[in-house]
# Entry
Amino acid sequence: MLLSPSDDQRAIVDAVADMLAAEAPFDRWFLPQTDPVADEARLLRFGAAMGWMGFTAPASIGGAEADLVDEVLIFREIGARLGPVGLVAGTIAVHLALALGDGKRAASIVSGETIVGLVVDRAGSLVAGGAAATLALVVNGAELALSAVSAHAAHRVAMDGMSSIAQIPVATPDLVIRDDVLGLRFQLLVAAVQQGLAETALAESNAYAKQREQFGKPIGSFQAVRHRIADMEMRARRAEALLYFAAVALRDGRPDAALQVHAALTLAHAAARHNAEVNIANHGAIGVTMENIGHLLLKRALFWQFATGPEDALLDALADCPPPQV
Amino acid sequence: MDLEWSADDVLFREEVRVWLTENLPGETRPAGTSGADFDRAWQKRLFAGGWAGINWPSEYGGRGLDLTRQMIWFEENAKAGAPSLGTLFVAQAHAGPTLIALGTEQQKARHLSGILRGDEIWCQGFSEPGSGSDLASLRARGTVDGDDIVVSGQKIWTSFADVADYQELLVRTEPGSTRHAGLSWVICDMKAPGITVHPIRKMNGDAEFCSVFYDEVRIPAANVVGAIGQGWATAMATLGFERGTAFIGEMVTLLLRLERLIEYAKTHPLAGATRPAWRDDAVRRRLSMHRAEVAALRALNYANLSRYAHGATPGAEGSLVRLFTVQLSQAIERAAIDIMGPALLDPEGAEQQWMSGYLHAIIHGIGGGTSDIQREIIADRVLGLPRSR
# Structure
């Protein structure tokens, strides 16, 4: 039994974090010339070049044949750097295409040649995360579909301030699957990016509380502030442990996999959103400006929460799971 | 990462399961201090079965299990509903391990075997009326007089002092010393002249709390554990033994308790309603959120323990697990009494055990360091924030 990253896994994670820090520094968001739509396209190309959408895919289509748990660790880092939504959509689309025997399409997504957006509304026409997308992924529980989309629509910047989004007529899906495991895999990847986001909010607050002084002392010495940050740490640690448990459960086909994944996404959403809100409060006035990443963390946390369906549906799915076995 | 147990560990789990099934006492443990005889009898049975001191080294008569097996032991005990250590908690979990780590050969020979056999009940004399969260401010005085230390002062919140044979007693032995310096950890015989014990009843009716008064109590200086004046280091070593597997049993108990509550909600209506409470969206989703949180508590325990089993040293993250355990147990018990509502008003009703569970969870948020103190420890030692005190 081991439910914590090994030294090898830590080395992979650190390497990915370093690359992302260089490619996607937070302070680019404070520059007026940063164009979110172009920036998203650039990072999608970078992610494809790194092979992140094919991390667990077979080598025959350009994949790295890595473990699902390693993929979760990488997407946690992508989430921590507010990486593009399209990386999650693309990764799931690869496995959808593979499951339906369309290796050619899977390979083209892995290589970055084909970009996949994510349908984020129930009407099925609001596509996020890929201005250049020619495919759109729809996830509705265990039902997943890939549709062709026209790339001509006028793109706007989404509610999160970082993603592209457009109303696009989505064609009748050409690849449709009902696959419990793939639906859970989508939830797990979203939980991973939300986990990363919760960690960034925590790290931002922890650093600021040590540096910012009021009343002649660092604000991190005041109990009202430090207890809030201790609670952020708690939300991050409990969601992290559960994320790993869920990843192993899904990878190994444990009977409690659905319960663990639903639970992991529930607590990752809660950690991301709550930590993002509290992080803004911890920063005071600078926290409510565009000169701080607090608002981006909050908006992205909300983006993922709303894009993956209402919390009530997730809780009802948890209610329907058989009791966990000890 | 993996969640697999080795084949040997699976066999061990089966061995524990079978032994517990064959040996569990038929009756439930009487509450509070009145459970002392029950606790002694259960400990003797554990000893006879070779299960005494599961985390004690075998050279001291313990079972010497590694962390993974301790965890399996606690999980299976919780699943079987086996008795807690009760009045023997301090002896088994604090005093014994402290003597093993820092006691003299004479002290070990005098006490360890009796503790393992359930013959010695110990209590903990740390807190004082003016020294709760701020333990280092304690004032009970120990004056060195020849071969004795003469103790005067008061301790409070001392569980089971009225049935204890011995006490781990923390006193200030250097006159004029302050804070952590000048304290000594001594073995106090509770039958020594000059000791008066007053029971204090907790809000759930249990009378296990006590206040202990010391009027010139003579304790042999040979009873100091660790060096004289170094009692703080000894006390910290004592508290350190609580870490590691300390929360596993509670986690399993909480998981099973929530599932029992869900079963209750599936078979009982809310007050004034006819359909089962589980059909109420707010109730069902509230309990489902707790299901997610219990899964996280389990994962967090496994994550920490597997790191310790691979060589990491238990540290301040234990405070985080403790805080989460307390918060979650309070949330689940609160949900239970909210669902049961007026059914709790009948003091003879079957639901009363949930009322006592709720009160117990509130009490649990204070002992062993309040939730605010746990947050302070997390802020200091996990987050490295500047100190508040």
In short: The radius of gyration of chain B is 22 Å.
